Amino acid sequence: MKVTRFVTACIFTFLSIGTFAAEYEISRQSDGPFSFSISGVKINEGSSLVRESILFNEPSSPVNIDSHSTSIIYADRGFRFKGKTAIKVNSQIVAIETRTSLYDAFGQHMKNLSNSEVKDFSIGNANIEGEWRAYDNDISKLLTSVTYVARVRFADGTQWIFDVDNLQLALSTLNLEQEIGSEDDEE
Questions:
Q1: Does the pLDDT value for residue 118 go beyond 80?
Q2: Which of 77, 119, 136, 173 is surrounded by the most beta carbons within 10 Å?
Q3: Which is higher by pLDDT, 78 or 175?
Q4: Is 138 within 8 Å of 51 (Cβ atoms)?
Q5: How far apart are CA 104 and CA 25, in angstroms?
Q6: Cα dihedral angle (167, 169, 171, 176), rounded to 10 degrees?
Q7: How far apart are CA 148 and CA 86, in angstroms?
Q8: 71 phi, psi to nearest 5 deg
Q9: What is the 8-class DSSP label of residue 186?
Q10: Which of 175, 180, 146, 185 is nearest to 65 (CA)?
């Protein structure tokens, strides 16, 4: 009897995780070499790893992410992350927040980058760009970025908000730390 309950609980848990994770469309894109040179300084020399951009698109979202790239630049006497996200807007909106979670070579969470654009978006394609401070340790560790639509505001004041539980389950299927942070710890 106890074994049957345990097996039933395991099957239910497995089916639940599969159902939640399947609610996202996950795509992967190359985001440049892990070994690179910036302002004459070689970073991660000798590594054959390739940085990766992972996109999460929730089917219920009024905006889909087509691509995202996180580059590392040197500006204003410091390193910066520069993000560019191509989106497809499926219904008219007046504001959007995208988030990019950064992970190191071991799949450990480093930090979150939040990008809010408060302007009218018509149906169609658009680009969102942002820049954030990057410390020396950040640029040598970044291997994987995970980008998703966090919030969307419509003209009538209603909002669409991502499902954090589904995102954490999807992260676990990619062997990435399931910490995604809160609005308080974003850069």
A1: yes
A2: 173
A3: 78
A4: no
A5: 23
A6: 140
A7: 11
A8: -105, 160
A9: B
A10: 146
Tokens of 65: 């992410």
Question: What are the domain boundaries of the chain?
Answer: 2-185
**How many CB atoms within 10 Å of residue 142?**
23
Q: What is the sign, positive or negative, of the torsion defined by CA atoms of 82, 34, 179, 15?
A: positive
Cα 125 from Cα 63, distance rounded (Å):
10
**Mean pLDDT, the chain, as a whole number?**
84
Hey, how many other C-beta atoms are within 10 angstroms of the C-beta on 16?
Answer: 11
Cα–Cα distance measured from residue 13 to residue 70, given in angstroms and rounded to the nearest whole number: 35
Question: What is the rounded CA–CA span in Å between residue 87 and residue 68?
Answer: 9
Write down the H helix ranges in 22-153. 136-141
Short-list 127, 126, 97, 124, CA closest to 113: 97
Has residue 2 got a pLDDT over 80?
A: no
Query: Can you list the alpha helix ranges (DSSP code H) found in 29-89?
Result: none
Relative orientation angle of helices 2-21 and 164-173, to the nearest 10 degrees? 100
What whole-number distance in Å separates Cα of residue 133 and Cα of residue 79?
Answer: 6
92 phi/psi in degrees, rounded to 5: -60, 135
Q: Which two tokens stand for residue 110?
A: 């480093």
Kindly tell me if the per-residue pLDDT of 54 is higher than 70: yes
